[in-house]
Amino acid sequence: MAFEIETVRAAYPALAEGFRHFDAAAGSLVARPVADAAHTVLTGAVANRSTAFAPGRRAVEIVDAARAAVADLVGGEPGGVVFGNSATSLTYLVARTLARSWQPGDEVVVSRLDHDANIRPWVQVAADAGAVVRWAEFDPKTGELPVAQYADLITERTRVVAVTAASNAIGTRPDVAAIAALAHAVGAACYVDGVHSTPHQPVDVGSLGADFYVTSAYKWSGPHLAACVASPARWSGLQPQKLRPSSDDVPERFEFGTPSFASLAAVTAAVEHLAGLDGTATGDRRARLTASMTAAEAYEQGLFAELVQGLSAIDGVWLCPAPEDRCPTVAFRIEGQHPAETSAALGAEGICAFSGDYYAYEYFTAMGLRDSGGAVRTSIYHYNSAEDVAVLLAAVRRLAG
Ligand SMILES: Cc1ncc(COP(=O)(O)O)c(C=O)c1O
């Protein structure tokens, strides 16, 4: 395993500006090959898709390559990768499409730990269909999402269980495989929000038991584009509302209008970039991704432990409770200070950290923190350095003192 932080950082031109980025949970910087790939498409002869002439064939190849890349990233099949503008829009699409067959009295299960993008679409389509929404609760003292409650929440009427693979507020990684198994036992589908987890660890949709897995490339060094991955057979059984002349093939049936070929080429480049994070990794791209994401995770977790220990040791700093085993994201408050003030004070020192609820609306409402500004969120990504963490901790110490 070889994760060379200086080599990795050198791949991100934007780091040269000198900001300390603890904001990757909201969107990471873009790696140079990603920008280069988009530039090549935008300045080259790439037409709309056609088999008749070379620039049209290039577009076809770009789309195919991007599907293959995302399939490698998450362990899916290229023919089951549907692209869309964002995880939010894809989740609305899947929710609306699935709900077309729901009957009054059917049920969906959502969790209060989730980003609103994996809650509200289900709540809204359930209301339209007369379906019942059941809520999984997190434990406010530990930040865990206990699996046991799902045995009661899931019934013969459950059609979908929507759950996150990682909380974008506090990093908790629910036991998705166990939750999916309970869903499958009654024939329900498990829709997994992989937006926060994908950048931080190897992903295998099969072992997660995810029937649908959504991920956003701008969280893992790529462009603003998202993908929802399911088996081609599952997509085949679904019929979205669509234009008459547009392709009815899977996965194109679920993609509306002309895609951004520049962004799709950038997605492929981002996956290649991730596969190269461990410079010694060998084998096919999936194998290199597994090795590289394992190496990146170990590196991130090392820095994250320093960050959490450092924050915990500062008088006047309160951390949102979260399990030890989690994605490298921590939310905190400085006593007597509005989180937005803390965020702005850090920003004035060149430290990028969001405050608020980051759309983890239900989480912060249930914690009683939303109306008073949520919390400051800092997350570690593979380009953060030990110096970044030291600078952040020194700044928080000053602000808390
Ligand atoms: C966990 C999680 N889910 C969903 C989303 C929404 O992603 P998108 O901006 O692609 O709609 C985000 C964005 O921050 C997120 O963190």
UniProtKB/TrEMBL annotation:
Q: Which residue ranges does the record assign to the Aminotransferase class V domain?
A: 22-391
UniProt cross-references to Pfam families, sorted A to Z: Aminotran_5
Which named protein is this?
Cysteine desulfurase family protein (TIGR01976 family)
Q: Which organism is it from?
A: Allocatelliglobosispora scoriae
